[in-house]
């Protein structure tokens, strides 16, 4: 009888071990690891990596995808993103505020002027894109 961890790591279609499936699974794990790091580091986003992990899991790890979709914390956000490309208003405000604070702090660094102007310009473009997404 396989243990719970063996059951979780196996795919629902049997023991597929093709390179493609392993790469999708590796990308899903990378997304999860980066999202965990994003929770701890304010300069790194979390949501895009959660979405990346769910997308990659959907390609090569159905059990992980099902677990993520059923997760009480971020499952609903993945479902909303997939259905309507929706970003909650609170997340929009948090992202915009974090990018604004990062842009201000960046101005007090010794970076070249191009970086101190270019990075905030990219953040502004991302913020505008985020605010164009539906809320629900």
Beta-strand content bin? under 5%
Radius of gyration, in Å, reads 18 Å
Overall pLDDT score = 88
Which stretches of 5+ consecutive residues score pLDDT under 50? 1-8
Question: Structural class, judged by helices and strands?
Answer: mainly alpha
What's the β-strand tally? 0
Percent helix: over 70%
Overall shape: it is: globular
- N-to-C CA distance: 43 Å
Largest sheet: none
Order of helix and strand elements from N to C terminus: HHHHHHH
What is the total number of structural domains? 2
Transmembrane segments: 21-41, 61-79, 91-108
Pfam family, one: DUF454
Keywords: Membrane, Transmembrane, Transmembrane helix
Protein name: YbaN family protein
SSE blueprint:
Elements: H1 4-9, H2 19-40, H3 47-60, H4 62-70, H5 75-84, H6 89-106, H7 113-132
Helix pairs in contact: 2-3, 3-4, 4-5, 6-7
Q: Can you walk through the features of this model?
A:
The protein is mostly helical and 136 residues long. The chain folds into two domains: 1-84, no CATH class; 87-136. It contains seven helices and no strands. The protein has helices at residues 4-9, 19-40, 47-60, 62-70, 75-84, 89-106, 113-132. Helix 2 packs antiparallel against helix 3, helix 3 crosses helix 4 and helix 4 (62-70) packs across helix 5. The longest helix is centred in the first third of the chain and has 22 residues, at 19-40. The termini are far apart. The relative contact order is 0.10. Mean pLDDT is 88; it is low at 1-8.
